[in-house]
Specification:
alpha+beta; 3 domains; single chain; about 325 residues; Tetrahydropterin Synthase, Chain A; 9 helices
Length: about 325
């Protein structure tokens, strides 16, 4: 009998421990709880951390994250208002703000992610389709620094925008939150992660960019060649001016030198007969030196002045 009593007491203690653990749950700082009884919510959501109690076995604690949660959209091909097909990749951050309503409408985070896919992807498609491509990639208007070569692509980048990328993101965020009011969640932030052309259009854009840059480079190159020709022309003109001035000055110096030499010769010639004879002799010798060499044979008349000098030298 005592044995059966011991077994009964052990069973009761075991059942009591199980009952105690089934009625106690701990809520962390990052969690919030909705208590359900047979699948239906009971009471308000528990949002404060600490040790909590519930009815054992019949009630269940459903835990939900209180922190900011991540939503990462799939890249979608979307046409813009100006009929340009682009891939748009987006992401967002959201939070469970009403866990009781969240449990009633979405049950869990997987259901919330699926609902956000429908809402955010749909709003993104609508707003992209209602705006031109330039509005989705630019946030502010641009002012050219200089009035240089402005090509077709550069001109496109200077096109004025009315809405801009940031405002479109804000409008998508606002429209999404209007649809999530009764879901117990709130979208905190929405951003475009990446916007790019589809493959076919991207190749065309690259070719267009290359041809535009080649055209601009050719224009700069032709302008540079024209400037180089102008500089070389000025250089040649200045060089010829300097050379002509130098030649004129050299001729003037040589003329003055010849005049001075002639004056000296004339002065020396007029001083005396001896000087004139010496002068005549020197000039004759210079004439001999310039006229004859050791291979030349000449025939002179006895009346020639050159013969007189040669005869006297002999």
């Amino acid at each position: 009998m005592a044995r059966y009593r011991t077994i009964l007491i052990a069973i009761l203690i075991f059942v009591g421990i199980i009952t105690l653990f089934s009625s106690i749950y701990v809520v962390n700082e990052t969690e919030q709880v909705v208590v359900t009884q047979f699948g239906k919510p009971v009471g308000d959501a528990v949002t404060t951390p600490g040790l909590k109690f519930k009815l054992p076995f019949v009630q269940t604690a459903n835990f939900f994250d209180k922190r900011f949660l991540e939503w990462d959209g799939d890249p979608n091909q979307i046409p813009t208002k100006d009929k340009k097909y682009i891939f748009v990749d987006t992401y967002a951050r959201w939070q469970i703000v009403d866990p009781l309503q969240f449990f009633k409408r979405l049950r869990n985070e997987l259901g919330a992610q699926s609902r956000l896919d429908d809402i955010l992807d749909g709003e993104t498609r609508d707003f992209i389709a209602n705006h031109n491509l330039i509005e989705t990639v630019r946030t502010s208007n641009r002012t050219p620094i200089s009035s240089g070569v402005i090509g077709e692509l550069i001109g496109d980048s200077l096109e004025r925008i009315e809405v801009g990328r940031e405002k479109i993101q804000s409008m998508i965020l606002q429209a999404a939150n209007e649809q999530t009011l009764d879901l117990g969640i709130r979208v905190l932030d929405f951003r475009f992660k990446r916007i790019n052309y589809v493959e076919e259009v991207r190749n065309q854009v690259y070719e267009r960019m290359k041809s535009e840059r080649y055209r601009i480079a050719d224009k700069f190159r032709s302008e540079g060649q024209g400037e180089a020709s102008r500089i070389n022309g000025e250089k040649e003109r200045e060089l010829k001016t300097i050379q002509s001035q130098a030649f004129r000055e050299a001729e003037e110096i040589m003329g003055r030198a010849d005049a001075e030499a002639a004056s000296i010769y004339a002065s020396a010639y007029n001083k005396s007969a001896a000087s004139r004879s010496l002068y005549t002799f020197v000039k004759s010798m210079e004439t001999f030196e310039k006229t004859f060499d050791d291979q030349m044979h000449i025939i002179l008349s006895t009346d020639s002045e050159l013969f007189q000098y040669l005869k006297s030298a002999k």
